[in-house]
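USER:
Working in pairs, take the chain set out below, taking as long as you need, and write a paragraph about the fold.
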Amino acid sequence: MAAAPPSAWHRFLDSDFVYNFKRSPTAMISAAVLLMFALVALLAPWLAPQNPFDPAALDLMNARIPPVWIEGGQMKFPLGTDGQGRDLLSVLMYGMRISLMVSFFATLFSLVVGVTLGLISGYAGGRIDNLIMRLADMQMSFPTILVALLIDGLSRSLLPRSVHEQMALPVVIFAIGISTWVQYARTVRGATLVEKSKDYVHAAKLIGMGPLRILFRHVLPNVLGPVLVIATLSLGMAILTEATLSFLGLGVPPTSPSLGTLIRVGNEVLFSGEWWVTVMPGVCLVLLVLAINLLGDWLRDVFNPKLK
């Protein structure tokens, strides 16, 4: 009796991708740190010692307590407290949740827009290609943070204040996402120009398959390698962009503070001796972005055919 073919999971475990991952300590450590941050953010309501957004759980008598390793610190507040008596560890858990959520959906939005436009541009060619690429060139002439600031400023001027507060997170996600689609579009367009001249695309045309089905069923899987690398690196940039907007007071609302908002709030009391209020979110932000960038660099090396 013939042996059953290996499942998709077993084929994945035996792939070169997993083999290279196991041989790279940097990739394993970065992935572990990123997974830890993601789990802490996802499980914040259950892991956090305190709900920092519940006024009934706060006590102003606990305000400005230093970290536990400094004289005056308390074990129940290992990283100290802020001016409102909130446990800084709990605030960081909830802040990472907001930062990761905004950056993930912004990256996903830019990926969908950029990949779709890149596929259409590379496959259609002609005027459609010129139109999309000229839009991309115009987009690249503006810094990402400037585009995000412009969109956020327009939303504040066009929407009533109450509506803007409710739409603050979607606006920030849209602002960051729409300003970073170009790198996906240009990369996918170049790969599509190569793929559309191959035999499997010509064969699909001969049997009457439509352009959209050819693009998304046959061409797209063959261009996902570079897209995955860009998405990983863009995730770190999205976190930094969101933190910058929040630090400037233009990002997420104070009622849903991200790491950038926490750094901005802590910066106001930095020189009064309460350094931990801004340093702890800053260290957390650096470690998070560093883990993402190191993992992205490893992915870039794995998918680079010149290094194989």
Observations:
- The mean pLDDT is 82.
- The longest helix spans residues 88-124.
- The two ends are 38 Å apart (CA to CA).
- DSSP finds 15 helices and no strands in the chain.
